[in-house]
């Protein structure tokens, strides 16, 4: 059996293989509510053989959305639209996960195809979508041309921490089995973690311990509202790729603190704190973030997930086999081919005759193969 297709257990939840569908924002929600788009988008990955299917970044507060199209779990009314999705994913043998987040200073942004800039008058006139005020640990704009966010008060901080816990409760009621917290790519928790965005001088800023405090308190809040038997993961930017920002050594200490607070796995990404331009230190190539997943796994003694520019089944197999990560996550590769896990299984010799495919499609594909073989066509 290929290691990529071996089961993996966190707490009481076992994922059938090491392949996760990375959270991919679709910007198709209305007032945070899921709809048929989300059901089909996520359901096809379960049919395609992924072990863990993450729903996209889901806001824990209305003002914590990145865009008007973000999913939300800031109110109980948003639970019902997610229940059929998690049921379908589970019925097809996959585990359903959800990523909870708050955009912080990146809130009130236009959808990527509308410019990935702050919501403006055009959005009001053409889409009836108005801007709202963003909050952040410090009043530092995300990038040039962005508005200055409001510095969070102690009451704001405590409210948002509680909101993560409440959203986790709703996630459980919706049927999700794993929660991942979005603490990467320049969103609110990352803003607290990074000295580039956090200039506070109180207990929420300054030292590494203080800057980690918000993430740790979020983890505790979720654990208080999330079943003990269910795993909790965090996606971290394990380096900012910028002078004066987070380095992997900082991320290791954050991972250790999160583990103590009840976190079970770190999804290891990088970057995103300083605007849209790629930092010079960031060299993108296949598997370029894998070393960070390996470092976190080894140094923090916690399960890790590798993500980013992974598409070759043999490369993914080798990194799991070598113990560089416990799981791998794919995003755009799965948008291009939702059946990537099933095709990977064939390439790695993990199954024969479409045995891993849902029988409703696998039976027909086996019949086609027999016919093609008999005719000598292929």
Largest sheet: 8 strands, parallel, barrel
Q: Which blocks of ≥5 consecutive residues have pLDDT under 50? A: none
Proportion of strand residues: 5-15%
Output the strand order for the largest sheet. 3-4-6-9-10-11-12-13
Q: What gyration radius follows from the Cα positions, in whole Å?
A: 21 Å
Count of β-strands: 13
CATH class: Alpha Beta
The total number of structural domains is 1
Mean pLDDT: 96
CATH architecture: Alpha-Beta Barrel
Helix content: 25-40%
Number of helices: 12
Shape: globular
Kindly report the name of the CATH homologous superfamily. Answer: Aldolase class I
Give the SSE string: EEEHEEHEHEEHEHHEHEHEHEHHH
Q: What is CATH's topology name?
A: TIM Barrel
Terminal Cα span: 26 Å
Class per helix and strand makeup? alpha/beta
Structure in a nutshell:
With 378 residues, this protein is of the alpha/beta class. Helices cover 35% and strands 15% of the residues. Strand 10 (232-237), helix 7 and strand 11 (265-269) form a beta-alpha-beta unit.
How would you portray this structure in words?
The chain is α/β, with parallel strands linked by helices and 378 residues long. The protein has a single domain, classed as Alpha-Beta Barrel (TIM Barrel). 35% of the residues lie in helices and 15% in strands. The protein has 12 helices and 13 strands. It has helices spanning 36-47, 83-91, 121-127, 154-174, 188-193, 208-223, 248-260, 290-300, 313-321, 332-336, 340-347, 359-375, and strands at 8-10, 13-15, 19-21, 52-59, 71-72, 95-101, 135-136, 150-151, 178-183, 232-237, 265-269, 303-307, 327-330. The strands form 3 sheets. An 8-stranded parallel β-barrel has the order 3-4-6-9-10-11-12-13, surrounded by 6 helices. The protein has a two-stranded antiparallel ribbon with strand order 1-2. It has a two-stranded parallel sheet with strand order 7-8. Helix 4 (154-174) runs parallel beside helix 6 (208-223), helix 6 packs parallel to helix 7 and helix 7 (248-260) crosses helix 8.
């Amino acid at each position: 059996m290929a290691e990529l297709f071996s089961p993996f257990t966190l707490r009481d939840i076992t994922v059938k293989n090491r392949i996760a569908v990375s959270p991919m924002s679709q910007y198709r929600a209305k007032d945070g509510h899921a709809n048929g788009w989300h059901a089909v988008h996520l359901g096809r990955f379960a049919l395609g053989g992924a072990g863990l299917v993450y729903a996209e970044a889901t806001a824990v507060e209305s003002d914590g959305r990145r865009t008007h199209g973000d999913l939300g779990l800031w109110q109980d009314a948003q639970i019902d639209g997610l229940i059929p999705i998690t049921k379908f994913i589970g019925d097809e043998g996959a585990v359903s996960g959800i990523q909870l987040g708050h955009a912080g200073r990146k809130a009130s942004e236009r959808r990527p195809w509308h410019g990935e800039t702050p919501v403006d008058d055009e959005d009001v006139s053409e889409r009836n979508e108005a801007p709202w005020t963003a909050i952040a640990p410090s009043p530092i704009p995300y990038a040039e041309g962005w508005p200055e966010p409001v510095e969070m008060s102690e009451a704001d901080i405590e409210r948002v921490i509680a909101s993560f816990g409440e959203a986790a409760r709703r996630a459980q009621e919706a049927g999700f089995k794993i929660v991942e917290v979005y603490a990467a790519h320049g969103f609110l928790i990352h803003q607290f973690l990074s000295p580039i965005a956090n200039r506070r001088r109180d207990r929420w800023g300054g030292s590494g311990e203080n800057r980690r405090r918000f993430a740790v308190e979020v983890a505790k809040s979720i654990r208080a509202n999330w079943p003990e038997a269910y795993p909790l993961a965090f996606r971290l930017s394990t380096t900012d790729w910028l002078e004066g920002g987070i380095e992997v050594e900082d991320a290791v200490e954050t991972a250790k603190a999160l583990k103590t607070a009840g976190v079970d796995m770190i999804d290891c990404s990088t970057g995103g704190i300083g605007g849209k331009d790629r930092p010079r230190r960031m060299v993108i190539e296949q598997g370029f973030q894998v070393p960070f997943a390996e470092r976190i796994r080894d140094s923090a003694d916690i399960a890790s997930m590798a993500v980013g520019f992974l598409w070759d089944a043999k490369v993914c197999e080798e990194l799991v086999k070598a113990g560089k990560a416990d799981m791998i996550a794919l995003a755009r590769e799965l948008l291009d081919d939702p059946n990537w896990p099933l095709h990977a299984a064939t390439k790695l010799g993990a199954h024969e005759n479409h045995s891993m495919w849902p029988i409703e499609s696998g039976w027909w594909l086996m019949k086609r193969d027999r016919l093609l073989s008999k005719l000598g066509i292929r």
